[in-house]
Amino acid sequence: MAFLGNHSSLELLLAASFILLASLAANGDEIFYEWRVAIDTKIKPVSADQPVITINGMFPGPLINAPQMTIFMNGIEQRLNSWQDGVSGTNCPIQTWEKLDLSVSVEGPNWELFLLPFSLFQKSGGGFGPIRVYNRIIISVPFPKPEAEYDLLIGDWYPKSYKMLLNGKGPYIDPSTKSYESFTFTPGKTYRLRISNVGNVWSFNFRIQNHKMLLVETEGSYTNQITFDSLDVHVGQSYSVLVTADQKAADYYIVATPKMVNVDKISSLAAIGVLHYANSTTNATDLFQLVEYDNRSCQAQPTRNLQVTNVTLSQTFILHGSKAEIDGVSSYTVNDVSYITPTTPLKLADHFGNWSGVFQLDQFSTNSSNGSPKHGVFVASGDHKGWIELVFMNDLDVMDSWHLDGFGFLLLGDWTNHSRSTYNIYDPVVRSTVQVYPKGWTGVYAYLDNPGMWNLRSQNLRNWYLGQELYLRVYDADPNPAKERPPPDNLLLCGSTPL
């Protein structure tokens, strides 16, 4: 869940806890969850003193099983309901000891998501957990039902130096690890692994010793099925793979190593777990060889039988993600603008017609940079029910990834002024987070059929925290709730909104 706040709400959150009640609606049925969010100082996944954000006392948080429904959790589109998207531009923060009831619904095929806090640097302290969204009975799944499913939430963790955690647990055989993750497979059976990068900075390469992986889904889209030995997963991305226990009875290493770091340091940074065959009496071996795996790109290019050959674009945004110094402070920018969070959420200011002092629509360029970095509240207009081309340019020397709330987008490929002719418009996949390589460009299409105030940001926590984001205002003047829901009765108010 991505509920943001200001510095004071962070201090309150660290001092105590809050309660979040969610009613998930699907097919006329409701599923109720109660999440108690708090700080735990005893978990210490790698034996270092660092507070951990827990949900119901668990890290990672408890699994949410849901039929199709529309909550901001990473990848949920919040159809017609940006009121509860859970970012600073839409919601006031939940204060300490405060309770908030949410009513949300989720749409999409059988897929893997995750919830997380997005206030300041809270994501780096945990608070994330897995979500599984299942198909309605009448919608078929394009692969046989697996024997079982496992969630793998993997990401970088920084107590005193960087480590990588697998489901909140430290790496196997690391002396600082209190416990490690393991999964038991029955020989001959096939299992679904739902892999998510819940980290803050690092992309990682994922592999299972001596086993192939069949890619079947990414962020809510079934893909054309492709077999991999290893898979790159960038910050904020999720994949589902099928793995068959077709090797001799033994234990095998599960490894995730960070991308684009000094190869001499990889062995001390990797997330390491164990795949255990049920009849195994043999421990896993050759860890060093597996961890020191060739660090070249193993990026999946998922595809789907979906054509966009007849799209007529109504807008093109060319967004430069850069780093700059503004008033002596290191900042990250989009087209020279480093976003600052106003005390009044943009959605509330928009609804109550009180923009003055909060934001100015279309104040900043959506297609150019002029080398004059500045702070600002970057809000751009999106044409309702129009196709938009988003071109992400990474001016940095490190990997970046971008996420758009409220929509999925079609990943078309790398971009230059002359590369539209090479766009994959015949079988692109729909996803919500896309990687952008250092000094590279990535182009996507999105259909803006979901009115609201939607966040477009870097998924790299440092970049986002220091300003690399903007908001897309997709507006429809028709008050018909079939187009956008009215504000909820328990809407939290803050800033300059009327009480």
From TrEMBL:
Coiled coil: none annotated. GO terms for cellular component: plasma membrane. Pfam families: Cu-oxidase, Cu-oxidase_2, Cu-oxidase_3. Residues 1-25 form the signal peptide. Keywords: Glycoprotein, Signal. The keyword Acyltransferase does not apply. It comes from the Eukaryota. GO terms for molecular function: copper ion binding; oxidoreductase activity. The keyword Membrane does not apply. InterPro entries: Cu-oxidase-like_N, Cu-oxidase_2nd, Cu-oxidase_C, Cu-oxidase_fam, Cupredoxin. SUPFAM superfamilies: Cupredoxins (SSF49503). Belongs to the multicopper oxidase family. This is Plastocyanin-like domain-containing protein. It comes from Hevea brasiliensis. The lineage of its organism: Eukaryota, Viridiplantae, Streptophyta, Embryophyta, Tracheophyta.
